[in-house]
Amino acid sequence: MVDRSGIADVIDGVDGPGVVGAVERLVAIPSMGGTDGEIDAQRFCEEVWRADGFDVDAWDIDVAQLSAQPGFPGMEVERTEARAVTARLPGTGGGPTLLLLGHTDVVPPGDIAAWSADPFTPRRDGHRLIGRGSCDMKAGVAAMWYAARAIRNAGIRLRGDIVLAAVSGEEDGGLGTYALTEAGLTADACIVPEPTDLDLIPANGGALTFRLRVPGKATHASRRTEGVSAIEKFVPILHALQDLEARRNLEVDPLMHRWPVAYPLSIGTVQAGDWASTVPDLLIAEGRLGVALDETPEHARADLEAAVARACAADTWLAEHPVVVEWWGGQFASGRTDPGAAFIDRLGRVHATLGHRPPATYGGPYGSDLRLLVGAGIPTVQFGPGESAAAHSPDEWVDVRDVIACTQTLAAFAVDFCGHD
Predict the structure, then answer these.
(1) Do 188 and 103 sit in the same domain of this protein?
(2) CA neighbours within 13 Å on the CB side: how many for 9?
């Protein structure tokens, strides 16, 4: 049963234009991982949350010390500094603590020519707010911020605390969330407002970044038969990886049934050769291996390595000059919260009570910070505005109506979950 007392006041207090403006302010910060903008976005949250009267805690992360720890989740960009920011709306005591956590780092915009305008100049097209990071996931960060703001403005005295956390480094491993959990951050439940199209995602497959070094033998292109092309030798390896992906997706967890490929295996970059008239003697391919729910990263790595080894053994050249597999960058394990957890059901009911479409529940095929939070003992679900298909794409967008709806639901759920006097 949803406790409706106090909910009407907090819903009325949600500042729709304000939360949309907050998304625009965040999008205007080019917070790509490993750049100064990544720090700027963290400092922005620190400043506005302090100005809003929240109890803010912010500190510099010792990247070198953190990355040397055995459980460090990896990085794919170079960093010498990072920032952690949390803000607390304290309760009167006796109620559960709700954590709302979102990342402020974004991926690079890619080919600027594919964008209709500057990626970091937010703009509107009808109900769409366009800009890099609008969907993934600055809309979610703004929604959680303005949800807490609405509760404060309504003068509602919660029993439990609300904790806001802005993290960096999520896109390439999860450095920011790992730093917070290592510092002792805890809560009774967590909502991560990643783009879920306002559905409930209590589980994620993992994602492991790998590199393949395929050897060849260089010679002049006019004598190509006396050399060995690393490009040609990559072909059977690619076929083996495609077969591996198919096998790994024959049977998947019921939470993942909605996806055509629940645990994708893809090659993202290929580099070979340094001269058009030379047979290339080395090909370097980098890719991403999906990790199944409840599968260990170690098992997934061994599966790929065995598939590559079998392909090499079947080729005369590669049998004697095998492909080298390297694991680097972000190493996302899979993670899950019980989809039947009471707080997840409660969140769905609150959302529907506000007149929105009842959310579906399923697992996501991508890695996220959820697995770090669950690993730290914090039950976590993803619920946020935006469609994941728009993330990382040119003209990335989010529907502002969904941003406002998410803000309302987060605010109402916080009142219901934390309790109030």
Answers:
(1) yes
(2) 15
- 287 and 369 fall within a common domain: no
In angstroms, the CA 242 to CA 68 distance is 34
- Is 105 noted as a catalytic residue in this protein? yes
Residues 23 and 163 occupy one common structural domain: yes
Same domain, 91 and 197: yes
**Domain extent for 146:** 7-204+334-418
Choice among 24, 46, 170, 197 that is catalytic: 170
Q: Which three-class secondary structure state does DSSP give residue 137?
A: helix
Residues 170 and 285 in one domain: no
How does pLDDT run along the chain (421 residues), one tens digit per residue?
A: 455 656 888 988 899 999 999 999 999 999 999 999 999 999 999 999 999 999 999 999 999 999 999 999 999 999 999 999 999 999 999 999 999 999 999 999 999 999 999 999 999 999 999 999 999 999 999 999 999 999 999 999 999 999 999 999 999 999 999 999 999 999 999 999 999 999 999 999 999 999 999 999 999 999 999 999 999 999 999 999 999 999 999 999 999 999 999 999 999 999 999 999 999 999 999 999 999 999 999 999 999 999 999 999 999 999 999 999 999 988 999 999 999 999 999 999 999 999 999 999 999 999 999 999 999 999 999 999 999 999 999 999 999 999 999 999 999 999 999 999 8
Cα separation, 141 vs 102, in Å, equals: 5
**CATH at residue 102:** 3.40.630.10
Cβ density class 249-258: b for 16+ within 10 Å, e for less: beebbebbee
Indicate if 76 belongs to the active site: no
Domain closes at, from 295, 314, 332:
332
Catalytic choice (105, 245, 369, 396)? 105
